[in-house]
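Exercise 7. Given the encoded structure of a 240-residue chain, write a plausible sequence.
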């Protein structure tokens, strides 16, 4: 752990989704650029991650990606931004593979650009290294998590099953959209294909060493009008 510094780890931010459930609410920009407290949600997410001294941010853009490019292409200062553009929708896994040319680090932090869970990212990194994990996923308890990936762990916090968006009642451990990947994870994703991390990749690589980092932190997700309003209220109250 002594030799692994957060400033040497690339952050891949998935910002390419269509945001179809928000059409009619926000139509002029990609979902991560929705303004909350006068600034884009993506700025709030990046500021939170940069607090842990991450520097290099690779923004995987798709739908209305020019909006993100125009905003970030001249923002390079202490933080460095790289734009990985999809010419057509590649899914969450395909977007990461498409960004491979920008990725320099042996470990990469991957985050969804439309959600925020304020964990201690350095502690999460220690967990990933201690477990010698191939991938590590942040998990949080959610009631009726039908719109999220649901995970089961063994006593060692190893993931033994992963099911995406299945009808489940009661509290379950859900994917919070924050991951550490070993670089070799990129070899598990074919080039040029539309692939989902959640549906196509995670279920078939569990035996390589996938672990769940459990937190009680709240998961903010701006993917629906109702969740967007909840996130706005929370971020206003906490002055993010």
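Solution.
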């Amino acid at each position: 752990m002594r030799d692994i510094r957060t400033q040497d780890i690339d952050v891949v931010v998935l910002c390419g989704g269509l945001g179809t459930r928000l059409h009619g609410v926000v139509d002029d920009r990609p979902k991560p650029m929705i303004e909350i407290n006068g600034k884009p949600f993506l700025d709030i997410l990046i500021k939170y991650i940069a607090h842990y001294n991450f520097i290099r941010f690779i923004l995987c853009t798709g739908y209305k990606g020019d909006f993100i490019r125009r905003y970030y292409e001249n923002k390079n200062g202490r933080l460095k931004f790289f734009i990985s553009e999809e010419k057509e929708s590649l899914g969450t896994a395909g977007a990461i593979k498409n960004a491979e040319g920008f990725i320099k680090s042996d470990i990469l932090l991957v985050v969804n650009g439309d959600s925020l869970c304020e964990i201690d990212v350095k502690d999460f990194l220690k967990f990933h290294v201690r477990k010698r994990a191939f991938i590590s996923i942040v998990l949080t308890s959610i009631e009726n998590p039908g719109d999220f990936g649901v995970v089961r762990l063994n006593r060692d916090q190893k993931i033994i099953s992963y099911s995406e968006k299945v009808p489940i009642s009661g509290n379950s451990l859900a994917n919070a959209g924050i991951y550490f990947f070993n670089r070799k994870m990129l070899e598990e994703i074919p080039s040029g294909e539309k692939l989902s991390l959640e549906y196509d990749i995670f279920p078939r690589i569990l035996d390589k060493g996938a672990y769940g980092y459990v937190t009680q932190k709240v998961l903010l997700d701006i993917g629906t009008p109702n969740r967007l309003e909840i996130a706005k209220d929370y971020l206003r109250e906490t002055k993010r």
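Remark. Helices lie at 41-50, 65-72, 91-98, 121-130, 197-205, 225-237. Students should compare their own answers with the one above.
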